[in-house]
Specification:
The protein is an alpha/beta fold and 197 residues long. It has a domain of 129 residues: Rossmann fold (3-Layer(aba) Sandwich), CATH 3.40.50.150. It is 25% helix and 28% strand. A 5-stranded parallel beta sheet has the order 3-2-1-4-5. The chain has a 4-stranded antiparallel beta sheet with strand order 6-7-8-9. Strand 4, helix 5 and strand 5 form a beta-alpha-beta unit. The radius of gyration is 17 Å and the shape is globular. The mean pLDDT is 81.
């Protein structure tokens, strides 16, 4: 099952070890706390289902981008693009596991591309997602909304790992993640980063 299929089927809501509404609320809060003053021209890269972005319409002039058009279908009020537009933005948001969904050897080029689309003095809000590898066969189990959720970490190599999330009675999906050397990224891109606490 693909990432977009996981969102549409409802499995996506269980990928986080917390209720999805709490996960969404934390995304909205992080995006707003880091936003430049006013109503900044904003690009959300890897917007997923567009839920956080839809809740911020009016507070941000927001353009959503992802590799699938699910946000556009679920939230037709959003401006959605398949590729990053050839323009500069006040604010670029790439939170969650966006960076660690990019193969490690392509992460620097990805960051450089994001910075090239920022206006001078603009802000990039970057989530680093997974930055260390789990153990092969590690299984985590949690429950919420009366669902049992199992996460199994597998195919762990030196350059990627897969996480299969199985929601009992609903289905499963597998997502691939890549390592990110956080210290190296902060050192290389120290100038453009705004560190948020």
């Amino acid at each position: 099952m693909s990432y977009a299929d996981a969102i549409e089927s409802g499995i996506y809501k269980y990928i986080w070890s917390m209720p999805f509404e709490d996960h969404l609320a934390s995304h909205k809060l992080r995006i707003l706390r880091a936003a430049p003053a006013g109503t900044p021209d904003t690009l959300s890269v890897g917007c997923g289902d567009g839920g956080a972005e839809a809740a911020l319409v009016g507070k941000l002039q927001i353009t959503c981008q992802d590799t699938h058009d699910l946000a556009k279908r679920l939230h037709p009020e959003l401006t959605f693009v398949e590729k990053i537009p050839d323009k500069k933005f006040d604010y670029i948001v790439a939170i969650g596991a966006v960076l660690t969904s990019v193969p490690t050897e392509e992460q620097d080029a990805f960051l450089e591309k994001l910075f090239s689309h920022l206006k001078p003095g603009g802000t990039l809000l970057l989530g680093l997602g997974y930055y260390s590898f789990p153990l092969e066969g590690d299984v985590r189990e949690y429950r919420f909304e009366n669902k049992t959720v199992l996460e199994t970490y597998h195919n762990v190599t030196d350059y990627s790992f897969d996480v299969t999330t199985k929601v009992l009675g609903l289905g499963e999906c597998t997502l691939r993640y890549y390592p990110c050397d956080v210290k190296a990224k902060l050192a290389k891109f120290a100038g453009p980063f705004r560190i948020l606490h």
